[in-house]
Write a structure and sequence with these properties.
single chain; alpha/beta; 292 residues
Length: 292
């Protein structure tokens, strides 16, 4: 038996005629100490590649583990992950939801393909954030997967949603019906991602991009929706006069998608106007899925 302290133990197991005897200290056919197995699984969860795990065990334990063994151990986490994904949501209400997607390379049918990972986090009434749902989706039918994920969240106990903050994803073009119309006050498009998209339409001249960024900051700094829309109309008119019809139309048609947060307390707006709070989580996911 291989142990976590770098020792290989040779255990002599008594055999009886009926073959019914089994020691209590370890399971039948067990070759690795359970603590060592848990340590290997923890290394995998923390984002250590199978190659590096193999190298580390050779130094620490004087023995190595094949990639196939490490893959099987990681597969043992699937049932625990599935229980977490289907757990009941215990908070009475999640006023704010943040919905995002990232893309990962996934092995499917002996091929490595890019698939979307849909992520939903919520802010509870007590102010704490919680990851509510994770779903791997085929990029060709993301909208369908979003709706299925929303229905699953509702079935698990999601309620009290007042605002949904998201990027410009196909499956979120219409706000999901998490609650009654009285409770659910709408959705807001991430202001940072909207600004990036708009600045991509502006000419490469640094001065023009700085001017567009300043205009957007002024709109988003408004204290009310009416004031923001009035400023947006003025900004669009100014850009149209400069010959930037495309930029003017984009502001007129889409900037209002970023203003729903103005209906909420001013102290909350900084946190709910973008999905930037999710970046740390995305970094952790990337660190564990794109290892070298």
């Amino acid at each position: 038996m291989r142990t976590r302290v770098g020792t290989t133990l040779n255990l002599l197991v008594p055999q009886d005629r009926e073959g019914s005897f089994s020691p209590r200290l370890f399971a039948r056919y067990q070759r690795n100490e359970k603590a060592l197995v848990l340590a290997l699984m923890e290394m995998y969860v923390e984002g250590v590649s199978t190659r590096k795990v193999k190298e580390a065990t050779e130094v620490l334990c004087g023995t190595s583990f094949s990639k196939s063994l490490l893959s099987r151990l990681a597969g043992g986490l699937d049932s625990e992950l599935e229980r977490w994904r289907n757990r009941p949501l215990e908070a009475k209400a999640y006023p704010y939801l943040f919905v995002d997607a990232r893309y990962e390379k996934v092995r499917a049918e002996r091929r490595v393909v890019s698939q979307g990972v849909l992520l939903v986090s919520g802010v509870r009434e007590d102010g704490f954030r919680e990851i509510l749902g994770v779903e791997v989706a085929d990029t060709e039918s993301e909208a369908t997967y979003y709706q299925e994920l929303f229905r699953s969240l509702k079935a698990r106990g999601l309620s009290g949603v007042e605002l949904v903050v998201s990027e410009d994803h196909e499956g979120l073009s219409r706000p999901p019906s998490f609650a009654t119309s009285r409770e659910h006050r709408g959705s807001v498009r991430c202001q940072v991602h909207y600004a990036r998209n708009l600045l991509g339409m502006v000419s490469a001249a640094r001065r023009r991009k700085d001017l567009a960024a300043a205009d957007l900051r002024a709109i988003f700094a408004a204290t009310s929706r009416e004031q923001a829309l009035e400023m947006a109309s003025s900004v669009a008119r100014r850009w149209r006069e400069k010959g930037n019809e495309k930029v003017a139309e984009h502001i007129e048609e889409h900037v209002q998608e970023c203003l729903s947060c103005l209906a909420f307390p001013e102290s909350h707006r900084r946190r709910i106007r973008t999905t930037n709070g999710r970046e740390r989580l995305n970094q952790e996911i990337k660190r564990r899925t794109r290892v070298w």
